[in-house]
Amino acid sequence: METxxxxxxxxxxxxxxxxxxxxxxxxGCTAAAAAAREGARTLxxxxxxxxxxxGTSGLVPAWCPFSDKETIIYRGLAMKxxxxxxxxxxxxDREALDWVPIEPEKLKVIYDQLVLEAGVTVLFQxxxxxxxxxxxxxxxxxxTASKNGLRAHTAKVYVDCTGDADVAAWxxxxxxxxxxxxxxLMPATHCFTLGNVxxxxxxxxxxxxxxxxxxxxxxxxxxxxxxxIPDAHICNNMIAPRTVGFNAGHLWEVDNTDAYSVSAALMExxxxxxxxxxxxxxxxxxxxxxAYVANTGxxxxxxxxxxxxxxxxxxxxxxxxxxxxxDEICRNSYFIDIHGTEQEEKQEGGKQEAIKRYGPGExxxxxxxxxxxxxxxxxxxxxxxxxxxxxxxxxxxxxxxCLAMGEAAGLAAAMAAGVAEPDVHAVDVExxxxxxxxxxxxxx
Length: 444
What we know:
By secondary structure, the protein is α/β, with parallel strands linked by helices. The protein has 13 helices and 15 strands. It has helices at 26-37, 77-87, 104-118, 166-170, 199-204, 216-223, 259-283, 285-288, 316-320, 342-346, 390-396, 399-417, 429-438; strands spanning 13-22, 42-45, 121-123, 127-133, 139-146, 149-160, 175-177, 192-195, 234-240, 243-248, 292-296, 306-308, 328-332, 364-367, 379-381. The strands form four sheets. Strands 1, 2, 3, 4, 5, 6 and 15 form a seven-stranded mixed beta sheet that branches. It comes from Paenibacillus donghaensis. One of its GO terms (molecular function) is 4 iron, 4 sulfur cluster binding.
């Protein structure tokens, strides 16, 4: 690529932070709140205008399960966020733990309150542009772009919650990306909401989910009238009065580390939302005949990009054996949810699961070492980019476990920032686990 040399070589510095968290999704919100709660001076940098990531800007319509089918296992700040949202949604069963709907505007405010009450400073509409290092495993500054122009931000410890491991990767961390043999990425989904839905007809009509072989989605696909609807993936939830949220369809070959790729996908996704509305109005007229597209996600629903190589790589065997670890910072029980290639998803029944789902009460641990990139001393990673096998990433990528990982990363960052020479690999894990338990974490 042709290069351009910047004439302006000096930037204003926003320094003095103990911890800087990049990315204000679920992991970033709990990481920032946990670090600030420990007394660390904490800055949270977010590229959009709201916190919450896929549950808010991305319009994912429901939480993945918070329980292991017996008890809630994503606790601490994760449970706080989850329960506070349920309290504000009168149509949701107070005892529900799994596949609970999300009203995104309410969730935005809950995340705002979470970080502000902890004492976090938030920078919205601020994009990471570059990472400066000393060449010896330490980040020295983050370069951002915002209405303030280009700025350098400095801290003792940095927490990468970008989802794509941008901070760690740009600092030189080793990482893997996509399928081992081909590099193929799981397809994306552009979520959307339909308003003015007839609630009675929707709730008492046929189940739309693709697991129901009598779902109208199969009639739509067989009709051939809507060729842009790709497959039978159509998760949906009543998220508010007369409003249904959809996590539907797939967009293939979308790479969230390529701005051109995701830009094209967002425009394609907006067109597809309108097609779904037309199809549902035809095949479920009682429920959707007068519906309209109320909103499309301002974030693309990305399932996979980079995975850092950490001090430990969580393996398929660890998942299958329900392994526990001496340094585990949370538990996880979500199934291995890998969305397949175009051919796999369009076949009868969609992509088949290769690894059996957990039974009631079963879960595995996530070790702290999966959050610590090899070769970087003042960086932690939390969220879907942690160190793990691709199959396991299909499980740990969802919001409940990201909330739990974020809280652990924030606590660890504050602990590392409290010593003269911060080193995330040298954090006292027993002390970290003790603090997590004190804050309500599930660490049996």
